[in-house]
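Before we proceed, please read the two lines closing this message. Let me know whether the C-alpha cells fit the sequence:

…
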Amino acid sequence: MNDFQRIADRVEIDALRAEFTDAAMMRDRARLAALFTPDGVLRMPNIPVEFTGREEIRTGGERLQSQWDFFVQNSHSGAVDIDGDTATGRTYIQEIARVLDGRSGQNFAVYHDTYRRLPEGWRFAERVYEVRYVDTTPLAGSAPGPDGQAHGAAEMGAPLEEAAVADDFAVPVSAERLDRTVAALRANGFAAELLDDVAAARVRMAELIPEGASVFTGASETLRLSGIAEDIETGGRCEAVRPRVLRMDRATESDEIRRLTATPDVFVASVAAVTETGALVIASGSGSQLPASAGGAAKAVWVVGAQKVVPDLATALRRVEEHALPLENVRAQAAYGQPSALNRLLILNAEPQPGRGTVLLVREAIGF
C-alpha cells in the first residue's frame, strides 16, 4: 500500500469515528447503525450490553437514548493500524449525561475498534466500549429549557449507558444477559430453561405438570396474559387449587385454605425480578403465595419474562419498588378496590432440593 492510500484510509476512518459521535449526539440511530458492517457488533461489557447487526444496534440505541434528559459525547481519535481492507484502532471518549430519573455524572472511556473496508467505504466491524473512569458527582448544570432552570439530580451509581439500560425495566435484556442468567440459576440449583416465547412456555408447562396433580397458581399477570393460568384452572388435567379456594368461606375455612395454598403438589407463579447472579425475588402483599415458593410445594415453576432480568439484588429491589409495585397498585385497585402493598419479600438465592424449582425464562416481555 502506498503512502497516499494509507493517508486516505486514515482520513476516512477518522471521519467514520467522528460521524459516530455526531450521530449519537443528534440521536440519529439509523445513521449510527449504518456506520457498521451488516454483521457489525457494538459491545459494552461494563454494562453489560451487546448489539449484533444494524437493526439491533439501531433499536438498542433507541432504548438507551429514550432514557436521556441530555447527553454530550466528546471523542478523540487514537492510533490506527491499517492492514489492507481491515484495520484496528482506538477512540477516546468523554461523556456527561443526565438520565430521566435525575441521576447524572460523567464517564471517561475507550472504544476498541475493528474496521472493515466495504464498497461504500470503511465501516465498524466491532466497537467495544471500555469504561476507564466514572464520576457520579451530580452535575450542577442542565440542558437549556423553557424555564432556563437546572433539573435536580441524585447520585448516580453506574456508568451512564448502564443507568439507562438498568432503569428500562419493561424492556427485554440481551441474549448474552439471558444466557448468563440461565447459567447462574443452574449453578444455584434451579432447573432453568430459556424459551423463545410465551407459546413455548405454555407447551412446556403442560409437560411439567403431572396429570391429576394439585396445582396452585399464584396471582400473576404473567400467568394471566400468557394463558397459562387458564390452561391450568380450566383444562381439567389437574386439580386446580385457586378456583377451589375462591369458592371457600374465608371466615370458616381459613385453615383449610392455608393448607391447600401452602403445600400443593405444584406451585406455578412468576417473580418480580431475577438477577444475573441466579436469585429470584418475589414480592407479596398478603404473603399467601410465599410458603409454596419457599419450600411448601413439592415442585415450583416460575415463568419469567426477559424484562425482569436485572444485574444484581440491589437493582432487583429497585425494580420491585419503582416498577412492579406501581403497576400492581393499579391492578389491585381495579380488582379489589384498594392498592397493593409491599408487605412480604422473599429472596430465593438457591434451590437446595435438586429438581424442585424450575425457571422458565422467556425471551420476550410478559407481565410486569
Summary: The radius of gyration is 25 Å. Confidence is low (pLDDT under 50) at residues 146-166.
